[in-house]
Task: structure prediction
Amino acid sequence: MIGFGGATLLIAGLVVLVACGAQIAVALGVVGFLGTYLATGDWHAVASLLAGAAYDGMRQPALLVIPLLMLMGEFIARSGAITALFRSLSRELRGLSGGTALAATVSQALYAFVAGASASSAAGFTRITYPALKAALSDGPMALGLLASSAAFGALIPPSVLLAVWGLLAHQPIGPLFLAALVPAIVTAGLFAVVVLSSAATRRTVAAGNASTGFTAHGIESAIGIALVLIVILGGIGTRLLTPLEAASVGTVIGLLMALRQGMRLAAIVEAILAVGRASAPILLLIFAAQIYSQALAVTGFGTALTSAVAGLGFGLGLATMVAIWLILSIVLDQLSIMALTVTVFAPAAIKLGIDPLAFALIGVIALETAQLIPPFGLLVFTAKAAVEDDGVALPEIFRHVLPFLGILLGLLLVLTTFPAIATWLPRLAF
Result:
């Protein structure tokens, strides 16, 4: 144990390291080692901490779920499935007022699910959908507002990389987390569709694509492939026929078959694997550093003190404080770094406050996604605008069109807080 002053210095050191540009994983590791040494005065204890964290990390099969989900998404993205699905949906819904907007919103959300990160979705798929959506709506700010908002929603669609990381950091089973997100995701999708159609109906709609209607062969194959991935993963986990690792493996195989169907060659497969390796390695390193940081908090006793302090605020104020901290940190840090910094303390505090762990995980992920839409720092809005060359679109106008979707996500936070059974009944039924 170390005194309050020493613990405060450690946290201050963490803040200074991050402010100076150090990677979160490095900062967490340094503070974890130093805190353990100050608490024990024994470098052997520090070495044991490193060995224990490495052992605990390597023996978790769930750790492999993250790179497998990312590889599945990479294969599906390289197959062109989402683009084909958007074009087919646009033609199929061309007779519906706001049909192109609905097609773009659905496709953008699926792309965020495939990409595993809403920011990359806002950057990548916005370039593809924006010209057609702007033409259909005759309103550039509305088009970018729809795309930025649907990218935020996409991270909620299970199986979500963010939920998988949360599960590893909070030591929660990943399968129930995926199932817990299913009902809120469906409800949110329906509300998003209502807003999209009602907003687009007030605008002049223009047919997107060529004069043909209906799905192309590629569009049909893409829809079947994506639906099969979702059914196999969620159905396999829900029926307990597959573990999350096995489900992610099957999903990766389906993604590979989709890519091979569209002509993907060996060189491209190797390139995709290497790309996922480069992207997933920092995430796995961050989880490893967070485990060291978590053990240091336990050894020093500071983690217990922080948890008790948050829980001592009471249900309403405690939860509001945690959400507020997430929103503030989102201005300067990415979602995974915020989770690594806070989940170790907040998850036990939520249990003490009487909040169901599954519902709290969803509240955390939704809050982190919502933060990316809040003006004036909404990262997804800036990312979507930067992805297109349209100087005539003003940021305040984009934020104005984001507000209805932001209201839905904030409302979802309140509903999950009041009625956690929305998130918990399905995993409790399955597990």
Remarks:
- The chain has 20 helices and no strands.
- Residues 267 and 273 are 10 Å apart (CA to CA).
- Confidence is low (pLDDT under 50) at residues 207-211.
